[in-house]
């Protein structure tokens, strides 16, 4: 009898390992091509090779740390961020920290002595005279005309922070403390996290047994808690007290080289080293801030502030905007070297350079003079100051990739802030009475938003 013919599988398919390897290879190539040519995702590598996995603090259930997270509104992204290796970035920023000459020459600041207000209460013309800073010998008004009321031990700890500092604040128990996520294994040892709070917030933390009254220093997870006696600052304006650590961070931390301000309504989910490297160092800028998701003109934000009662004194808003219009504020146009005049200032990344420090001082002076709505004087200060600020106004989609936003703590009486003055009409320019901003508005209304 003849032999029965047998058929064997080709050699290629005899190896399951080889099949799986080829499948993995082709899948990886397809994904790489997709992410390279598609703008439908923001890629921001938030986890280093050896991230911290465990929780930084165990919150009591009564505190409700993660209630009311807001969903993101955008599913696409025009910017692609792929961070370098965590250790390379860590070593680079540590090298800058050790070489203090890497950061520009410091400003000289005016000294106060029990002044009427923390910022000196300067007239507009006096404030404007410091915008053109070409002589290094001139002293700049930059707050601290009254003592910043914190303990000596806290002050010493702040002065020891000589690298990267992350700063936030909660006044009037308006937000909850949330821990940063996606941190590398060396970040907690080399990045300072400071949270400024008032007595009302501190009492709430004590109520939830998150701190002990017997301790002279407070720490919750990554955050060192700094108690501020606000009755010695702006006792009727919690928002203005929050402006001090937000814009005078270079004075509170005089030895820091970089800083990240993050509103307490946000939770940081990307390592601070990666953020500073990608948005500041890699872009070779002084400061990085997200552009506003809807507005590009300052006046749009001013009108929304009045319409939605974000600030009660609408007549004061009108005076503020007319002052800026009279002294050079122009609507945004494509000739400006910035993509917008309106930021989302909930997240600010800074290199503590001369230009950044000057901008922060000048902006703080405007906030004290008018109101703490920091988006209103932003473009005026940025465009009028000299030397110019090298600024990265990044996409809103990037902002949504690096931070999670939560709702503020709900309070009786609604969201209104500021002194309870007699409220004017919510229309900033009622009956089309444009005053000194007529030229601005005509130019803005004729401008395309495409």
Automatic annotation (TrEMBL):
<keyword id="KW-0472">Membrane</keyword>
<dbReference type="InterPro" id="IPR048354">
    <property type="entry name" value="TOD1_MUCI70_glycTrfase_dom"/>
</dbReference>
<dbReference type="InterPro" id="IPR006852">
    <property type="entry name" value="TOD1_MUCI70"/>
</dbReference>
<protein>
    <recommendedName>
        <fullName>TOD1/MUCI70 glycosyltransferase-like domain-containing protein</fullName>
    </recommendedName>
</protein>
<feature type="transmembrane region" description="Helical">
    <location>
        <begin position="17"/>
        <end position="37"/>
    </location>
</feature>
<keyword id="KW-0812">Transmembrane</keyword>
<dbReference type="Pfam" id="PF04765">
    <property type="entry name" value="TOD1_MUCI70"/>
</dbReference>
<keyword id="KW-1133">Transmembrane helix</keyword>
<feature type="domain" description="TOD1/MUCI70 glycosyltransferase-like">
    <location>
        <begin position="113"/>
        <end position="408"/>
    </location>
</feature>
